[in-house]
Write a structure and sequence with these properties.
Layout: E1 3-7, H1 16-31, E2 35-38, H2 44-55, E3 60-65, E4 80-84, H3 87-97, E5 101-103, H4 108-122, E6 130-133, H5 140-151, E7 163-166, H6 169-177, H7 181-186
Amino acid sequence: MKSICVFAGSNDGVAPEYREQAARLGEHIARRGLRLIYGGSSFGLMGTAANAALASGGEVTGIMPTALFRREIVHEGLTEFIGVKDMHERKATMHRMADGFIALPGGIGTFEELFEVLCWAQIGLHSKPVGLLNVNGYYNPLMELIRHSVQEGFAGRTHLNLIMLEEDAEELVKKMSSHDALSLQRTGDAENV
């Protein structure tokens, strides 16, 4: 693994733990010698993770549609910045460049990015690891919804195995770095999800 794409909110959220864990995530990605790939903003948890990775000597690539340049402040201190034409190209570029994905707490945009890579994994378009940094139990309701979809027959139990859920940034990066797609699909960790 050489890079991790981080999906995150362009806001900070209400709890200070969100920013703290975003910073820890960026720091641990850099310490493992991985490149952080993200949406390119200097705001919110996105900017916090990027700044922490840079401060820890890491490389950071930001990818942003040109239409957002006016609304979101482009992070000007990145290792690499890629301007793209739209959100579809942004996500395709992130997917192409990343060896794994981690979602920090965020809003609808974060959910949309997360579910796209989960859907692609479900149908076999990739076997890259997907992790949720479950700060303050943020993703508990989402995991309950996914479990509900399994109980109601709309998803298979093995789909739970596509998600690594951790409360600690360092532990999640460690798990992502040692990811084995085949063993995860066979045995999974669904009981702990």
